[in-house]
Known about the structure:
Elements (H helix, E strand, L loop, with lengths): L1 H18 L4 E7 L10 E4 L2 E11 L5 E7 L12 E6 L5 E6 L14 E3 L3 H29 L6 H19 L4 H10 L1 H17 L7 H15 L1
Helix pairs in contact: 2-4, 3-5, 3-6, 4-6
Amino acid sequence: MAFIYQSIILSIVILLTACGSDDLSFHIQYDDVGGLKSGALLRHGQDTVGRVDDIKYTEAGNFDVTVTIDEPYIAAAKSNTLFMISTSDAGSKFINLIDVNTGAAQLIKEDQLIVGADSYSGTSQQWQNQINQVINTFSESVSKAWSDWERQTLDEQVAYIERELDKVIAQLKNLSESARQSIEMEVMPQLRQQIELLKKRLEALESEDKLGPIEKKLETIDEMVEA
């Protein structure tokens, strides 16, 4: 009898725990699921944030994919988040949550139906996010170097600017036109400001020849941005 009571109590505890879950369940509509299956993972960056609960083919001729996002990651599910079906290195399908950092966005609600992203729009947004991260990281690096500027020797200043310009050139080769223009507007003014200060110091020491390689790199960047 005691065992029966314990089993009943355990069942009640499990039921209450399930009912009290703060996980988020909603629906994603796709025209094609491309091999996605129930139990597939939802991923946001490097984190596994949820799973696919069910996939149904509807009378409208599309797929209704029921998903659940675990409570700690609900903030990643916004109205402008892109939910793209992707393939892992191991070949399994999963849903990739891709952030869109433009405009205000509300959190997705329980049982809400949203439209999934196709591979073109999802991949394009992923690439744009990577570009933005490169620009932000590079801008922070330049800002920090600017604060350390007065503590550097002349040769250190010259070497630093050459290294940073080389980074810009390497990054510009793989960026879109809009991203190149962002670097030109957000990053280059700070570098040009440093170069002007360095130029004055070199002129005072009659060592302007050290600016030759730097000026050539600037010309290369201008050509790449205008291309």
